[in-house]
């Protein structure tokens, strides 16, 4: 009763959040870099605030195609979360069948522009870790979609590294020809 009230020195001193804190969303990747999102749109359907927009597209492994972004038949081509509408309830996380969408402990989302609070896919994707390759690239040879979800893929293979390097060489050659 006669204690001095505790004062938080925020933002100079930040208290750690609880492990299950609902902060900014993150789109996760498989260990070889492919995206876990299969563009099913269940997260958007589950969102009571209508803050999520997903547009799925088919993976195209054919020559001249767009490539493979996820191990499934489809991937989330467009993925947006409007943080002006989001109520951080976590229903989208529970609805996701592939655990592609999770919530981080980041809570500082304030900005000077309303447009900056609509996060797009590249802002939500988890950063590439060591051993991952930037999609699009083929799945690990001899593996099926279910092998990815069973955890049998542990990193990108030399064949995937070579494919990404070759694609980068072709793209740089094409851009120099256009100039």
Describe the structure using short key phrases.
single chain; alpha+beta; three-stranded antiparallel sheet; two-stranded antiparallel ribbon; elongated; 4Fe-4S
Strand and helix map with partners:
Elements: E1 25-27, H1 42-46, E2 52-58, E3 74-82, H2 91-95, E4 101-103, E5 118-120, H3 121-124, H4 145-149, H5 158-178
Antiparallel strand pairs: 1-4, 2-3, 3-5
InterPro entries: 4Fe4S_Fe-S-bd, 4Fe4S_Fe_S_CS, NADH_quinone_OxRdtase_chainI
Biased composition (Basic and acidic residues): 1-15
Keywords: 4Fe-4S, Cell membrane, Iron, Iron-sulfur, Membrane, Metal-binding, NAD, Quinone, Repeat, Translocase
Would you write up a description of this structure?
The chain is built from 5 helices and 5 strands. It is elongated and about 75 Å long. The strands form 2 sheets. A 3-stranded antiparallel β-sheet has the order 2-3-5. Strands 1-4 form a two-stranded antiparallel sheet. The chain has one domain (25-178): 2-Layer Sandwich (Alpha-Beta Plaits), CATH 3.30.70.3270. It has helices at 42-46, 91-95, 121-124, 145-149, 158-178, and strands at residues 25-27, 52-58, 74-82, 101-103, 118-120. It has 179 residues and is α+β, with helices and mostly antiparallel strands.
Adjacency order of strands in the biggest sheet: 2-3-5
Number of domains: 1
Low-confidence stretches: none
CATH architecture: 2-Layer Sandwich
The first-level CATH class is given as Alpha Beta
Give the end-to-end Cα distance, rounded to a whole number of Å: 74 Å
Q: Over the alpha carbons, how many angstroms does the gyration radius reach?
A: 20 Å
In round numbers, the mean pLDDT is 90
CATH topology: Alpha-Beta Plaits
Per the principal axes of the C-alpha atoms, what is the gross shape? elongated
Number of strands: 5
The helix/strand class is: alpha+beta
Helical segment count: 5
Q: How big a fraction of the residues is strand?
A: 5-15%
- Helical proportion, percent range: 10-25%
């Amino acid at each position: 009763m006669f204690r001095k009230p505790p004062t938080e020195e925020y933002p100079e001193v930040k208290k750690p959040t609880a492990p299950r804190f609902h902060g900014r969303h993150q789109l996760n990747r498989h260990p070889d870099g492919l995206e876990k999102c299969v563009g099913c749109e269940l997260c958007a359907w589950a969102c009571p605030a209508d803050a999520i927009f997903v547009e799925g597209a088919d993976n195209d492994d054919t020559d001249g195609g767009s490539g493979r972004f996820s191990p499934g038949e489809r991937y989330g081509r467009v993925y947006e979360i409007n943080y002006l509408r989001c109520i951080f309830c976590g229903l989208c996380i529970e609805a996701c069948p592939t655990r592609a969408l999770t919530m981080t402990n980041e809570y500082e989302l304030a900005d000077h522009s309303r447009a900056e609070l609509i996060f797009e896919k590249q802002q939500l994707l988890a950063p590439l870790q060591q051993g991952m390759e930037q999609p699009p690239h083929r799945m690990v040879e001899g593996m099926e979609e279910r092998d990815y979800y069973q955890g049998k893929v542990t990193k990108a293979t030399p064949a995937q590294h070579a494919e990404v390097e070759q694609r980068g060489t072709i793209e740089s050659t094409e851009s120099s020809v256009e100039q």
